[in-house]
Amino acid sequence: MSKQIQLRGRIFLEFNLHAVSGLHIGGSEVGVEIGGVDKTVIRDPLTNRPYIPGSSLKGKVRSLLEKYEGLPQNQSIGQKVSIHTCDTSEKYATCDVCQVFGVPGERDFGTPTRLVVRDVQMTAESIARLEENGRTDLPYTEVKTEVSIDRVTSAANPRQMERVPAGTVFGPAELVYSIYEGDGCDSQRDVERFARLVEGLVLLEDDYLGGLGSRGSGKVRLAQIQVKLRSRNELLQPAQLLGQFDALEQLVAALPQLQEQIRDQLAQA
Amino acid sequence: MPTLSVYRLHFRAGLHLGVRGVTLEEAAVSLPSDTLFSALVDAWQRLGGPVERWLAPFLQEPPDPPFVLTSAFPFAGAVRFYPMPVDLRGLFAQPEAGKRVKRIAYLSEGLLRRALSGEKLDDWLPPEGPTGPDDPGQSAGLLLQEGKLWLDGETELKQLPQWMHVDPKSRRPRPRAAYPHLEAWKEGRTPRVTIDRISSASNIFHIGHVRFAQECGLWFGVQWRRPAQRIEGTSTTYAESVTAALQFLQDEGLGGDRSVGYGAFTLETGQEGTAREAVSLPDSSPGGMAWLLSRFHPRTPAEIATLQAEGVAYRLVDVAGWLRSPDGPAQRRRRIHLLAEGSWLPAGETVLGGLVDVQPVYENQEGMLSHPVYRSGFGVAVGFTQEANHG
Q: Ranges for the Csm4 C-terminal domain (chain B) (predicted)?
């Protein structure tokens, strides 16, 4: 008999992401022009605007949660890099990070990855502001020169980093969190696990997004947070708004009540 | 008269469709019919629907599918594109036209209708080389996307998105010579990196993707044979199940790398999630040719025999890749060959095809999945009234 699972519903967590300090998410360094910057940021190839890839957001939050939970770094990727992924179904059953963020396809006990993180584009206001003030060094970005100085001779080695200026807003970010019931999936546990994702976002605000983070870049703040739910019997309706929050602290405070609401809605579906 | 319910997909971010499963760095712009069918089956399974029952009419002997799918092709504004035929000789009176059309991958619906009615399309070919803005010998046709898309430069030009007509920066209408360089989509490679949690060592890799411009995307057609048929043992109709599966897929995404936002789309729908528009295309008359709008896997001896007929032109694609099942680890599917979109076959009841089981077979039975894995080879074709000209 083949396994059976069923989607019970989806939580949509939407928010705007404010770059409190300059943001550097590296892009490809092909086609570097003479006199160009050394480290470029990633841009949408059609609009040429910087954006925040879903993979950066998802990878960073996963990485922070793995360290927060103290998970073993057992999966080697490339030569020097390891990350955590569960390798037995017993461990997987109790590992929130792997259930929410996914395991490699070759695991035969894997259930659907609960979390989908979308790319986040700049808001229309930020685009207009950066286009109109005309003070950016490159379209939508600043060029920040960094320099390392020899401790003895004071010889300088300058290099140029491209950053999206502080104050830029990206949004709305969309995190889609699916809730399943069936073989290897428990919808009650999925609703509980949603708290892990919110914890990860708290860790992200304290940490940084993108590169150059230990020297000032990448501080982000979540604002205009909305939590929506679409249960399985409302597939054709727009997702229902459960709560709006100005800041992450408010979402954290309201989380137990939100989870209760979600359980009630899913029970009726 | 094949009538297709049209579904237009606006992709919210990039789309990553692996090509031949070699590297992550390649991505295709097409979304073939077999991929779409598998996505519908997977979505239905995750919604908790009974898959075996859902597949029953597709698997019975002879197959009697409630619907068949075309592959997905590009659209720009209101202009829908279709695959260029494998054999170009039927489209043009001048055989040497073949040289100029090598780059064209898709032609518009207007040109397709003209071709289907037997008109030769030589006059619609834009001249080679740059032309002045007031060139008297200007052709009626127009190219976009560096020559990959071909459309009628008069009526269909007006149906393109506004940003294609008027340069948003200078607010001036674009000269005709600028159109071939406008892009409805852009293929790119995104660098990505995995960072070690402890040492911060980095491991870089690249993902290929396709991004679509505003008001551009992919569309596909559903040819309904019996939308009101109920899935065996349930009160759900096939029309309802397809609508539900497509709603599910909007947030789930199509193609690869979905958990980081690739492949999610917004569907243009009317009431209750159904298709908003339909297009009727000519049927093939007996003795005419059929122009494939989907991939196709001939199943019966009669279908296979048609490949030998006069005027047939087809291209084969080999379809391999990964399968995903809740019952086992991800693994490679068996490789099959399908006829590609744009192939020409003799018209008639012979373009139906069927599902092909691509479940991997191992010597050690223990590693086998507990269920078959089907790939759709059902064909959709439109009629071409004239004899293919092999002069």
A: 289-383
- Nearest C-alpha of chain B: how many angstroms from A213? 12
User: Looking at beta carbons, which residues of chain B come within 8 Å of A101?
Assistant: 259
The answer to whether B64 contacts chain A (CB < 8 Å) is no
Can you tell me the mean pLDDT for B141-147?
Answer: 85
Q: Give residue B21's region: left, alpha or beta (phi > 0; psi -120 to 50).
A: left
d(CA A70, CA B191): 28
Structure tokens at A229: 């739910």
Q: How far is B291 from chain A (nearest CA, A)?
A: 33
A213 touches chain B (CB under 8 A): no
**Domains contained in chain A, number:** 1
Which strand (E) or helix (H) includes residue B178?
none
Interchain CB contacts (distance < 8 Å): A and B: 138
Asked if residues B103 and B148 have their Cβ atoms less than 8 Å apart, the reply is yes
What kind of fold does domain B1-77+187-280 have according to CATH? Answer: Alpha-Beta Plaits (3.30.70)
- pLDDT at site B10: 93
Distance CA A67, CA B382 (A): 58
A84 touches chain B (CB under 8 A): yes
Q: Cis peptide before B301, with omega less than 30 degrees from 0?
A: no
- State the span(s) of chain B assigned CATH 3.30.70: 1-77+187-280
pLDDT category at B20 given cuts 50, 70, 90 is low
Residue range B276-325, pLDDT digits in tens: 888 888 876 667 788 899 999 998 888 888 888 888 889 998 888 888 88
- C-alpha B226/C-alpha B354 separation (Å) is 17
Question: What interhelical angle do B33-46 and B238-252 show, nearest 10?
Answer: 90
pLDDT band at A184 (very low <50, low <70, confident <90, very high): confident
- Report residue B21's pLDDT band, with 50, 70 and 90 as the boundaries: very low
C-alpha B322/C-alpha B17 separation (Å) is 12
Report chain B's C-alpha Rg in angstroms. 22
* Domain carrying residue A170: 6-55+111-268
Which residues on B lie below 8 Å from A26 (Cβ)?
191, 193
The answer to whether residue A77 sits within a structural domain is: no
